[in-house]
């Protein structure tokens, strides 16, 4: 896995959502910036708290024009059950082969060999505007902290010379 940096072109991917429909990054970017939220797994206590906090603050992210996609190596069926139980307004994408996880966040021992908890904001131009990878999998960026970081990253991009 090559280490991605802010300004790099985001690796393209297509993964199925909880309904089995394919979601392609480049097509999603046509509607605005995309926040990729990598997390170890559905129904775990920390991941559930994390994603529910984003659900509860989702309108704040939308106010920035940011779309959110959650990505783990769980199956389509498990994502469907997790989404139905917690009413997530954003899509969860299934990456059971961990190809996209490896291209972005990677896996680690602290997450039981599953995806690192990580955040990648992809600007509408397809370039990475914000990256944060948690060092310890039991921690996650709270909705307020994540919102502030995204707002700052988007402001920097808006002020950058074209």
TrEMBL record:
Coiled coil: none annotated. The keyword Ion transport does not apply. Pfam families: AhpC-TSA. Residues 4-155 form the Thioredoxin domain. Signal peptide: none annotated. Keywords: Antioxidant, Disulfide bond, Oxidoreductase, Peroxidase, Redox-active center. Its EC number is 1.11.1.24. SUPFAM superfamilies: Thioredoxin-like. Belongs to the peroxiredoxin family. BCP/PrxQ subfamily. Thiol-specific peroxidase that catalyzes the reduction of hydrogen peroxide and organic hydroperoxides to water and alcohols, respectively. Plays a role in cell protection against oxidative stress by detoxifying peroxides and as sensor of hydrogen peroxide-mediated signaling events. This is thioredoxin-dependent peroxiredoxin. It comes from Lujinxingia sediminis. The lineage of its organism: Bacteria, Deltaproteobacteria, Bradymonadales, Lujinxingiaceae, Lujinxingia.
């Amino acid at each position: 896995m090559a280490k991605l940096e802010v300004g790099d072109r985001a690796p393209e991917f297509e993964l199925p959502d909880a309904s089995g429909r394919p979601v392609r990054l480049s097509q999603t970017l046509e509607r605005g910036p995309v926040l990729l939220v990598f997390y170890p797994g559905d129904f775990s206590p920390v991941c559930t708290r994390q994603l529910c906090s984003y659900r509860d603050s989702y309108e704040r992210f939308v106010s920035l024009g940011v779309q959110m996609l959650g990505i783990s190596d769980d199956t389509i069926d498990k994502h469907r059950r997790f989404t139905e139980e917690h009413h997530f307004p954003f899509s969860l994408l299934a990456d059971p082969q961990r190809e996209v996880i490896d291209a972005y966040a990677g896996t680690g021992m602290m997450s039981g060999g599953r995806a690192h908890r990580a955040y990648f904001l992809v600007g509408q131009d397809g370039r990475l505007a914000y990256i944060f990878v948690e060092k310890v999998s039991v921690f996650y960026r709270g909705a307020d902290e994540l919102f502030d970081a995204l707002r700052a990253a988007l402001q920097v991009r808006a002020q950058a010379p074209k």
